[in-house]
Write a structure and sequence with these properties.
By secondary structure, this protein is an alpha+beta fold. About 35% of the residues lie in helices and about 15% in strands. The chain is built from 12 helices and 7 strands. The strands form 2 sheets. The chain has a 5-stranded mixed beta sheet, with helices on both faces. It has a two-stranded antiparallel sheet with strand order 1-4. Strand 2 and strand 3 form a beta hairpin. Helix 1 runs antiparallel to helix 9, helix 5 crosses helix 6 and helix 8 packs antiparallel against helix 9. The longest helix has 21 residues. It is elongated, with a radius of gyration of 25 Å. About 20% of the residues have low confidence. It comes from Lindgomyces ingoldianus. This is GTP cyclohydrolase I.
Length: about 325
């Protein structure tokens, strides 16, 4: 008996018919990948910079006698999740690319993203400040005031003249207020204000005023933050969005990291269908010094989930925040 004739292979690939694409990924997996990518970006942006010499061996920078100590830390970063003591950081083999080796170990512990031991993206000194006793707070204020007095002397002033007599203490108190975000965390700010609600359309709070300090020059940058998200059966109290923006901005920051931190915090807390954060600000380090362009403003954005993958949703958000 003759064998039945072989059926020809269809000209249309299976994933173009009703069968699932071998390259397709679930929405949950895609969103998780987005968050992981942004975690790494924040972690990288928190690190101290080292100059890169692209003419060096293998395109990497060459160590010099002046930076040998700091260069010892320039290994591939391995995040530590259970301690923030600097002594626990471990060195690994050097990364093969200049981009991976151009920054020192991060003083920030990024994982888990919302709350690491109650610190919400801490620096190494955050724990001491957050849990300080009244006596320790007084000692901190005195030490900071002494440092300000030294600054006044170094710029050519007389700290003992009438106008500057109380300036060191006044500025020390002001600086502690400017950075009060180190004493706050998401758990306390949200305070259980997450509610189940059958709503799946955009929620936007725009024109949130932010005031922060550039970590490179310790001068202010100010502007507005616009936050939007598409709920997935969970919403957050509207005032909490502004409080989250305030907490992360009242720290030494760069605008790019600030934008990502707010977006990731909302993404982790609510697990929404999408999150969008746009920040518009003016940096005094660019206005008062350096290039001195007084009219320049900086805009950064971070889009997650449907806000990133769906152009119409993203366009709707951007149109709504641009209205006067």
């Amino acid at each position: 008996m003759d064998s039945p004739p072989l059926k020809p292979k269809p000209a249309i690939p299976s994933h173009l018919t009703n069968a699932p694409s071998p390259l397709s990924t679930s929405t949950e997996a895609r969103d998780r990948k987005e968050r992981d990518t942004l975690y790494a970006a924040i972690e990288s942006s928190s690190r101290g910079r080292q100059a890169v010499n692209f003419d060096g061996p293998n395109g990497q920078f060459k160590p010099s006698s002046s930076n040998m100590d700091s260069l010892a830390l320039n290994c591939k970063h391995k995040p530590i999740c259970n301690d923030i003591d600097e002594e626990t950081w471990k060195e690994d083999s050097a990364a093969p690319t200049p981009l991976a080796t151009s920054r020192a170990h991060s003083p920030y512990t990024q994982h888990p993203t919302i709350d690491f031991d109650g610190l919400s993206w801490p620096s190494r000194g955050t724990r001491k400040r957050k849990e300080a006793t009244e006596q320790q707070k007084e000692e901190r204020l005195t030490k900071l005031a002494g440092a300000v007095r030294t600054i006044l002397e170094c710029v050519g002033e007389d700290p003992d003249r009438e106008g500057l007599l109380d300036t060191p203490e006044r500025y020390a108190k002001a600086l502690l207020f400017f950075t009060k975000g180190y004493e706050e965390n998401l758990r306390d700010i949200v305070n259980g204000a997450v509610f189940h609600e059958d709503h799946d359309e955009l929620v936007i709070v725009k024109d949130i005023e932010i005031f922060s300090l550039c970590e490179h020059h310790l001068v202010p940058f100010t502007g507005k933050m616009h936050i939007g998200y598409i709920p997935n059966r969970r919403v957050i109290g509207l005032s909490k969005l502004a409080r989250i923006a305030e907490m992360f901005s009242r720290r030494l920051q760069v605008q790019e990291r600030l934008t990502k931190q707010v977006a990731l915090a909302l993404s982790e807390m609510l697990q929404p269908q999408g999150v969008a954060v746009v920040v518009e600000s003016s940096h005094l380090c660019m206005v008062m010094r350096g290039v001195q362009k007084t009219g320049a403003s900086t805009v950064t954005s971070c889009m997650l989930g449907r806000m990133r993958s769906t152009a119409k949703t993203r366009e709707e958000f951007l149109n709504l925040i641009s209205r006067g």
